[in-house]
Write a structure and sequence with these properties.
single chain; 241 residues; alpha/beta; Rossmann fold; 2 domains; 10 helices; elongated
Length: 241
């Protein structure tokens, strides 16, 4: 849970104390490279204290006498890394995955300030494209509902200033969320059956990392010509499967 820890050095400092001399430590975290390349700014919210790259994690571990010897790239959360680490003097050999991710991060210039300075204009472009789509749909008499009362969706909608005038409701399968409102935007949350009842022209998928699953679950939208929309990394419209 590295991304959720406010004091990384204090937390990581416990790893070498607990780990056997030839033991293996493994953990996962959303990959900063994907956040930058795919404009995943909606994954930036209060639960996360850090947004991590392999090069930074290697430095943190090295400061506590540990090293990474292998890395797996996973699709989870829009792209995550599973890191395998050990004591600095352990016998584990470096694997190909480590070199591959190091090369990707170096190529993406994650160690240069310019990479991060150039992120904001791309975020603004996402906001402007979504607002343009929603306002155009409203002007044309089209209706837009949202799917997924997810944390990343709240970040997106509040940053864009979207409210019930553009998206009248959102649906979510969690009964604990139904009958409540999205924070900030105050958009009401209903069960998924609300989509079939209202038959919106567009369904904005807020947890875009679950797009395929949600589209399959809401395939009935094809019967009334409903289409699906994602806003990140750019506005995309999909026909129902």
């Amino acid at each position: 849970m590295l991304a959720h820890v406010p004091d990384l050095n204090d937390f990581v400092g416990g790893f070498p104390i607990l780990l056997n001399r030839e033991g293996v430590l493994t953990f996962e975290f959303p990959h900063l490279l994907n956040l930058i390349e795919e404009v995943q700014f909606d994954t930036i919210y209060h639960e996360h204290y850090s947004y991590l790259s392999l090069m930074v994690v290697e430095k943190i571990l090295a400061a506590h006498g540990m090293r990474v010897f292998d890395v797996e790239e996973l699709p989870t959360h829009g792209g995550s890394l599973r890191v395998y680490a050990c004591h600095e003097d352990a016998a584990h050999r470096d694997e190909a995955g480590l070199a591959a991710v190091r090369a990707k991060e170096q190529s993406a210039a994650l160690d240069r300030l310019d990479t991060y300075v150039g992120f904001e204009p791309r975020v603004v472009a996402v906001r402007d494209a979504l607002l343009d789509f929603l306002r155009t749909a409203r002007a044309e008499g089209k209706t837009v509902a949202a799917y997924g009362a997810a944390a990343k969706g709240n970040t997106l909608l509040n940053y864009c200033g979207v409210g019930v005038d553009l998206i009248p409701f959102v649906v979510d399968r969690s009964a604990a969320k139904q009958g409540r409102y999205l924070p900030g935007s105050r958009i009401p949350i209903f069960g998924p059956e609300k989509i079939s009842e209202e038959k919106p022209d567009y369904i904005l998928i807020l947890p875009w990392n679950l797009r395929d699953e949600i589209m399959a679950d809401m395939a009935d939208a094809r019967s009334w010509g409903g289409r699906f929309v994602t806003a990140i990394p750019e506005l995309r419209i999909f026909d129902a499967p």
